[in-house]
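Here comes a specimen:
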Amino acid sequence: MPLYTLQCPDCLEISEHFMGLDDNSLIMKCPECGHGLTRQFHRHYMSDLPRIQGDTVSGGCNYSGYYDEGLDCWIKSKAHRQAEMAKQGVVEYSPDPKYKKFRDEQSYIRKHAKPDDAQAVRAINEQKKAAATTRRKEAVDKAFDNAPLPKLPEL
């Protein structure tokens, strides 16, 4: 049985009760005033509570940013992130533009085809194979370009 947090509308007491998944209409008693509580109407959600992040200021909250594990520091804004990346000599990841054509065609097919369309699935798979073939061909060509040539015996 899940544990539900219910809030009494009269005394605003918050209490926890074990209730089954199908017990929407089960009436529980408030431990303070005895008012009837049901999960359907008196559920207290944690997301409804105010959250304070960072230092508080008059009139609201000050958002202090987030911790970026890759950069190993706190980030306050996009500009701060860009400056920190430049300071650490890191660049933003961007996929290879040669394969953008394949990604764009796949996303277009996914967006405009029905989920159970077998022809669209085949077209997406063909795009994946074409991209993989292109990557393999380029990798082989690069390997041959970088490989040292063997010395041939003189005739």
Q: What stands out?
A: Confidence is low (pLDDT under 50) at residues 55-62. Residues 64-93 form one domain.
